[in-house]
Task: structure prediction
Amino acid sequence: MSRILAIESSCDETAVAILDGEELLANVVSSQVAVHAKYGGVMPEVASRLHTENIDVCLKEAIETSGLRFEDMDAFAVTRGPGLIGCLHIGLQAAKTLAFLYNKPLIPVHHLAGHIYANAYVGEFKYPLLCVVVSGGNTELVLMKRPMDFEIVGETKDDAVGECYDKVARVLGMPYPGGLPMDLAAKKGKHTYHLPVPLSKEESLDFSYSGLKTSVINLVNSLHI
Result:
């Protein structure tokens, strides 16, 4: 079995996990949601600075929880992107330092591939399969015909759906992140306003949220909400 320490710092959460084969020995996450809430979205410079403060704490807690030592690892893994450049840099430097210090392999992990394969802990993959990838600044449909084979068959042409949620929520005075409070409000509401359905007349698997976001913001401003 391989023991791997993995670091994630692509956006506003610092995370360290330790695996022994398929057994999860530690999973430490330091969230910055409360800090970024007052801005209504993630501030990249603030996020990078907080990663610098949190990475050592997360590493120490993960090691203590697992009962292992850094030198017990067979490899170190780290998110290589996509993500916020400054945030990625913190995780990459930490992982590279550990790999160099203990003379162990460094495994770069694609952020979105990680999201997809996290589902393997829920159930076995049966190919071909279609993945709906909605993470931060990404909105994609990914077709997998075999393991580690990714074909993007649809993607956003402009804004990610998460960005649309957060910016509309901010205009409506809802808390950040905006997805959950907006969904809860929608379940209690009724169909009152007519908004555009992006790409409804196109034979495409792509998405578009910029026009919808702008339409909602303009509507809210016109109603003086």
